[in-house]
Amino acid sequence: MVLFYSHISHKLADLGPWEGSPSGKPTIRILITLIIIIAFSSCHDKAVEQVFNDDKEIQLVKQTMDNIFIWAVTKDFDLFYGSIANDSDFINVTPYERVKFGFNEVRKDSGFWGNPNFKAIRHELRDLHINFSENKEVAWFFCYLDDINEWKGQPASWENARWTGVLEKRNGKWIVVQQHFSFASENK
Description:
Elements: H1 2-13, H2 27-49, H3 54-74, H4 77-81, E1 91-93, E2 99-101, H5 103-107, H6 110-114, E3 118-132, E4 138-151, E5 154-155, E6 158-170, E7 173-182
Parallel strand pairs: 1-7
Antiparallel strand pairs: 1-2, 3-4, 4-5, 4-6, 6-7
Helix pairs in contact: 1-2
């Protein structure tokens, strides 16, 4: 900004004094300089208002991550589907053999999750790390997960699972576009 101001001042000095100014001082130069300063000040204020708020965005990302599990307690499929990419970009990798590519593949499992024999109890995310891309439109994360649930009254939980994933901010909302669940191998 200082270099810009200096450049403008030199250009304005070439204009000379304002015609008709009784003192012969470069009044026009001062006037134009003030206008430029005021204009840049108002632009700067707007830029400051639009600064990315890391704490707020971290909470929004975490809420989306929580929604991946919270929905199952009340079987709120709209909450779940609204938290993941509803297109072929979505990738879901679990410790099981099959990888699911695309929203439609995940949606096929809704019969299982909607079954009254499945009961989600609670979840906990531990050691959560969230990072953002330089343009603040992509986030990636790592955490340990306890996903406590039952099938036909018997425990069917994931405890101490590793969960990594990627979220994109689409239309102002964070959604999961890729996730990978795994367990540490006992063979070292």
